[in-house]
Structures are given as C-alpha cells and as structure tokens.
Amino acid sequence: MKKLLVAALALFCATAIMVQAQDAAPKKAKKALTPEQQTVQTEMLKKYDTNKDGKLDKTEKAAMSQADKDKMTAAGLGKKKAPAAPAADAGK
User: Fold this and answer.
1) Are 47 and 67 in contact (CB under 8 A)?
2) Terminal Cα distance for the chain, rounded
3) Residues in CB range of 37: below 8 A, 6 or more apart
4) With contact defined as beta carbons under 8 Å apart, do 63 and 48 qualify?
5) How far is CA 68 from CA 35, 65, 77, 86, in A?
6) Which of 19, 44, 55, 66 is packed most tightly, with the most Cβ within 10 A?
7) DSSP class of residue 76?
8) Could you read off the pLDDT of 54-91 as tens digits, one per residue?
9) ∠ CA 18-19-23 to the nearest 5 degrees?
10) Could you give the percent of the chain with pLDDT greater than 70?
C-alpha cells in the first residue's frame, strides 16, 4: 500500500511541476506594426473584412485584388514567401 501511495504522490508532483513549467514559459510577443503597416491593415480590413471580426480569413483573402495583395506584401504584412532557389548553371 505504501508503494502505491508513494508512486501516486510522485506522479502528482511530476504533473504539478510540468504544469507550472508550461505556465512559466515565455509567450511570443506580437511584433509591433509600423505606422505604414497599420494604415494598410486598416484599409484592407475596411475593404475586405465582411464578417467584421477584425481578421481576414481565407475567403476574404481570396476576394482581394492582386494589387491589394501586392500592397500588403510590400508593407510586410501576411505570409512571407520562401526565397527562390538559385538557378543552376546549365553551361557546365
């Protein structure tokens, strides 16, 4: 009986330590937007946020014109695309 009690107590302590460690983990801070980015974001939300939730979902982004998508990318908003791989020399 004592072994079972000690094992349960050890399991409880280990769980409590893990939960406390997860709570103490630093959270990623959101990167502050520049004034230009804030302006572009506000414009795009006014224009395309049809459900007024303050975010652009997939369907709202799909409805954006290419010019507006380019404007967001130029401002540094949205997903960043991976850089293109350098072309291999064909004349070797």
Assistant:
1) no
2) 77
3) 75, 76, 77
4) yes
5) 17, 5, 11, 28
6) 44
7) T
8) 888 899 889 888 999 899 889 888 765 555 555 555 55
9) 115
10) 74
- Using the structure block, give the residue that is written with the tokens 């520049």: 34
Q: Is the pTM of this model over 0.85?
A: no
Describe the crossing of helices 35-48 and 66-75 by its angle, rounded to 10 degrees.
150
Are 37 and 77 in contact by the 8 Å Cβ rule? The answer is: yes
Q: What CA–CA distance (Å, rounded) separates 31 from 43? A: 19
| Structure tokens belonging to residue 8 | 């349960």
pLDDT tens digits for 15-54? 888 877 766 656 666 778 889 989 998 999 999 998 888 8
Unique residue bearing structure tokens 């406390």: 20
Please state the φ and ψ torsions of residue 14, each to the nearest 5 degrees.
Answer: -65, -40
In terms of phi and psi (left: phi > 0; alpha: psi -120 to 50; beta: otherwise), the region of 81 is beta
